[in-house]
Specification:
five-stranded antiparallel sheet, 119 residues, 24% strand, globular, 20% helix, alpha+beta
């Protein structure tokens, strides 16, 4: 197990899946995904945006190794939640860290998050 409690990964062999990672140091963790399509081409998506063009070699597919090496393994539901959170923050709370994850979180200016139970 590594310090995040995950099983060790082979750094030279990425696997498709869902991940989270901050875009900057002390920044908001964004939704990431590594995909391997039916044609054998690798691609990465960071915060809902595809990074570069798909490529048959994962080392040449933009963003794949960035997500693989820096990302924390996640689930599809967390991936979708983070994308919805980003959309909400852009529309309703531009000061929320999810609205601009390229900046470090300023805890003095952040609006507190209130969790409500759905009925």
């Amino acid at each position: 197990m590594n310090r995040r409690g995950e099983a060790p990964r082979a750094v030279d062999r990425p696997e498709p899946g869902y991940f989270t990672m901050p875009k900057t140091r002390r920044g908001w963790a964004v939704a990431c995904r590594i995909e391997l399509d039916r044609d054998g081409c690798w691609s990465a998506e960071i915060n809902g945006d595809r990074v570069g063009e798909p490529h048959a070699d994962p080392a040449l597919a933009a963003g794949v190794f960035d997500v693989w090496l820096r990302g924390r393994v996640s689930t599809e539901s967390e991936y979708r939640h983070l994308l919805r959170m980003k959309e909400w923050a852009v529309m309703h709370d531009p000061n929320h860290p999810a609205a601009d994850p390229s900046k470090p979180i300023n805890r003095m200016r952040a609006t507190p998050v209130v969790l409500r139970r759905s009925r």
